[in-house]
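To whoever is on call:

I kicked off a structure prediction for a single chain this morning and the downstream step that reads the tokens threw a length-mismatch warning. I double-checked the sequence; it's 152 residues and nothing unusual in it as far as I can see. Pasting both halves so you can look.
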Amino acid sequence: MSDKQFANNRKAFHDYHILETVEAGLVLSGTEVKSVREGRISVREAYVRIERGEAWLVGAHIAHYAQGNRYNHEPVRPRKLLLHRDQIAHLAGKVQEGGMTLVPLRVYDRHGYVKIEVGLARGKKLWDKRQSLAKREAAREIDRAVKELTRA
């Protein structure tokens, strides 16, 4: 059974070096779950903050559920992440070291539960971004050349 992916943060892979990843549960209300399952979630501008031993997803936008009427949720609010205490302590320690942040990478369904993949990341410098772009372009050129050779 494959996981259904609801959102992907491609911008994070462009702006950061992802050093390690952690899977976390996401505490959502009923209309939030329905809206997420429709794919109406954005984690592009979101980040994870650790406060008082708890992890919080800040800045994620989950659109209103169409049939939610007066029971609808607030689209942008901090949402609690479910992690083990030792995972939170490990991530908090890494972030406290400096130069690192926690960014959401993707939101997906695992056995009926909405999960989020959080990455421990270090920001890329401008030249790093250019280097990544150059590598990607070179790989495309190589693929094109190989395709032309095999076609002929």
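Update from on-call: the warning came from a stale cache, not from the record. Cleared it. Sanity check on the structure: The chain has four helices and nine strands.
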